[in-house]
Amino acid sequence: MASLRRISYLWKEPDAAGSYSTGISLHSHTNQSKETLDFLANLGSQYPLLRPILARNERKSREQHSIPINYSAAWWTPPLTPRIAFDVESSQIEKKLNLMPLVSITDHDTIAAPMLLRTVAAARHIPVSVEWSAPFGGDQAFHLGIHNLPSDSGAAWMKTFAEYTAKPSETRLTEILAALHDLPNVLIVFNHPMWDLYLIGADKAAQRVNDFLTANHAFMHAFELNGLRHWEENRSVKRLAQQWNKLLISGGDRHGMEPNANVNLSNATSFTEFVHEVRYEDRSHVLFMPQYSEPWKHRILESTLDVIRDYPEFPMGSRYWDERVWHPDRNGVVRPLRELWPDGSAPGWMTMTIKAVRLMGSSPVSGGLRMAWSESRELRFALGEDAVR
Q1: What is the pTM of this model?
Q2: In this predicted model, what pLDDT tens digit does every residue of 308-335 receive, in sequence order?
Q3: Is residue 384 part of a domain?
């Protein structure tokens, strides 16, 4: 009898989806998702060579526009609208796997995308889902995929999450997760659990994960193998799942144009049926798509380029990179960068920085980087055997 817990790779098993009827896309983002710019300040701390560049840009922003750069108060949004994002995920499953698609979009701390999509005939059955950034331990926040919330109480749940985020309490977090767990059709996924996203140090991050799971493991239905994180990290997630006897599940974490690099295979005819497969049948077949075998650094570069590219064919507000980056003006009002420039165009120093990054995506530079970043065959298959445990 085949294992109920499997990992497959489409480039190794072209027929892996042959006995299934449905492909499930989990964890992707739209332009409704606010993505922090804190990572830029962190990069300056991590990489000394970048600090002078960032400092120069910060100084010019103050001197030329009287606007001090505030990374923690600024954010960017992914380029894809909810409908385009839904179509990108659905199309991959239909065209590459010849399966019926089920798509669960999880923007950061908002259910705006699925609620908007429910007004579109092709997407009216999309689950109400969110990626909740739940503070924990004072210096960390865990990203939890909360899928298939009841549509009539989705707004109330978002209020509950926001209240907790504003005033964190580990006891209260456990109460909220227990209440979500009591909803039989809700799926709770621990997203990229081994990513030290807040750069608190590997040892401390691992301790936070252990503390969180000690208190809340009973309410985690699955751990995510993240399609945008590298092999070594996902291998650590696999070990973590074995330690806590948890199911592994897919989660593409798409922010750019590339569709999710992994999906779940199923015979469920609805998302609720899929939830029951995971929660009550302990069943999950994760399929990694061919893009995951590409060098990780190259994929991260491409995703970054997607964010700063222009898309003239997109709806207004999503066409240009400086419409999708928001920052406080000199009065503290958060506005798109495009509205902060006196003549509507970015200053020369910022334009040159964007052009330099875009150059990395042009041929032959991109091809050379891709070859330089190619992992060894051993690393490419680092997750090991197909059985999850």
Answers
A1: 0.87
A2: 888 999 988 889 888 998 888 888 889 8
A3: no
